[in-house]
Amino acid sequence: MSRLDVRDLLIDVPGRSSGRALNFSLLPGQVWGVLGPNGAGKTTLLHTLAGLRAPRGGEVLLDEQPLERLNRRQIAQRLGLVFQERQDGFPATVLETALIGRHPFLPAWQMEGAADLLAAEQALARLDVAHLSARLVSTLSGGERQRVAIATVLTQAPALWLADEPTNHLDLHHQVAVLELLAAQASAGRAVFMCLHDLNLAARWCDQILLLYPDGEACWGPVASMLQPAALERLYGQRLLTSEIDGSPVFIPAR
Amino acid sequence: MHAAETATDRRRAGPLRSLGWLLGLLTLVALGAMTLSVSVGSSALSLVDVLATLSGQGSELQRTLIFELRLPRTLSAFATGGLLAVAGALMQVLLRNPLADPYVLGLSGGAATGALLAMLAGLGGVLVSGSAFAGAFLATLLVFGLAHGSGSWTPSRLLLTGVVVASGWGAIITLMLAVSPAERLPGMLYWLMGDLSYARTPWPALGLLLGVSLLLLPLGRSLNVLARGPLQAAALGVAVRPLEWSIYLIASLLTALAVTSAGSIGFVGLVVPHMLRLLLGNDQRLILPACALSGGILLVLADTLARTLIAPEQLPVGVITALLGVPTFLYLLHRSR
């Protein structure tokens, strides 16, 4: 099990003053949701936490070691990232794509073995895309690609999941299936940190929330204290209607 | 689609075994092509003669013909083709663009400019080669320096810089041809179209080809991940920047040596990797060694044709690679839909 500690972190969003320094810990078992309008810096935050982008200030500790003192491979053995936009590289099949999730664990000379193949196939089956194994990723629909991307991280099986809008492009059923999968990862002792646009999904599946305002202001805490209509209306600049169904708050944009 | 499925099936059967089979098969084809190339020529030798001479028998004349004339040239052709194909495959992974190759990126243009300058100055032999090598490295530095510029280093920017720099070299080459004395023109033109009769000892090129192929084997999986895009690769544990720089340097070195030994031979670096990807899928651990062998085979065959089609005259080998490669490539591309 791993943990991620964020100390006085200022993310580097170009053309914006630094805003509030972030201080929180991503602990085993937790599911964090990051909410904020477009351009608030959610993706930048996620990439900074993964060490793909240097912060303007402060540091990120992975199991008490600063990220910049770890090499990419050591980070990738513990931390996985579901990207928001797919970078289309060379054509590859679905199975090949999922299989690269094993890359951080294999020595340079070693080929993928039966166990790696099994892990990839199980991950694809878990995401409902096993029947597409031999297809080229470029021929899939947006939602199918999204599930292949999540299956790749599931093959990687990191202790820390960073996910940038994991429900993007997914139909209603698969949105729920993916969030159930992430929740199951957390209850197995891993930790999940994801950006979401859907308040209602965040309300149902997250236990910690971080609100990221466009001016760099931020606040974070347990879901019940964070999902307050007034704070959310200020966050999005949008009036909301609130109700409660099934024990969770439900937010609907007002016309 | 079809190619992708067979690649997956092969992977299920165990990638190591398929790698062994494929490389074994290609090695056999390569040996066959080289034997053919050594047998054919102004005085044809039978297969028996060739094998006898290679195993230490044969007449004085046959030994001279084979060991001093044909074999070095055949080995040079093989090494040059292999170097060009591997360089092309590496550039394509680096830029994640199937159009990238040493030509498009202006490396060969730089080498050609260097070589022609030396010829124009009346230099010959090693100095032409050295000048070509310097030109290739100057081109590398120029393209990467300009594309790197203020930090952002995207494939499209690199490709665009390479294309523009390449057309700059093209203009300089045309200018040099226009002002050169007529008696130097044939040599220069042959060099531009690729000509293995300039090749001297094949050993540096062969050694580099073997060394780089071995060096790239453990990097193969990292290259596969890099082909998914740099951010994804970094997230999966690849040290992207050092890997990209090494690939570019290796590809430049390969191109420089290839161009130095055989002039500028187009098409091999672009088409061989692409054909292999259509046939085998895109696992670099398979593609890179296969490129080394197939590029070599293609150029050995092309050079054999170039020497014999209108013997005793020779054709530039670059013309043959293009004439052979274009229809094959178009057929494969068409069939792959």
UniProtKB/TrEMBL annotation, chain A:
Record has Nucleotide-binding as a keyword: yes
Gene3D superfamilies attached to this UniProt entry: P-loop containing nucleotide triphosphate hydrolases (3.40.50.300)
Source organism of this protein record: Pseudomonas borbori
Pfam families associated with the record: ABC_tran
Keyword entries, A-Z: ATP-binding, Nucleotide-binding
Protein name: Iron complex transport system ATP-binding protein
Superkingdom, natural source: Bacteria
Gene Ontology terms for molecular function: ATP binding; ATP hydrolysis activity
Domain ABC transporter positions: 4-239
InterPro entries associated with the record: AAA+_ATPase, ABC_transporter-like_ATP-bd, ABC_transporter-like_CS, P-loop_NTPase
SUPFAM superfamilies: P-loop containing nucleoside triphosphate hydrolases
From TrEMBL, chain B:
DNA-binding among keywords: no
Gene Ontology MF annotations: transmembrane transporter activity
Biological process (GO), any one: siderophore-iron import into cell
Alphabetical keyword list: Cell membrane, Membrane, Transmembrane, Transmembrane helix, Transport
Places the protein is found: Cell membrane
Membrane topology: Multi-pass membrane protein
TM helices/strands, residue ranges: 21-54, 75-95, 115-146, 158-182, 202-219, 249-273, 285-302, 314-333
Superkingdom of origin organism: Bacteria
InterPro entries: ABC_BtuC-like, ABC_transptr_permease_BtuC
GO cellular component: plasma membrane
Keyword NADP: no
PANTHER family documented for this protein: ABC TRANSPORTER PERMEASE PROTEIN MJ0876-RELATED (PTHR30472:SF25), FERRIC ENTEROBACTIN TRANSPORT SYSTEM PERMEASE PROTEIN (PTHR30472)
Family label: Belongs to the binding-protein-dependent transport system permease family. FecCD subfamily.
Protein name (database record): Iron complex transport system permease protein
Species, as recorded: Pseudomonas borbori
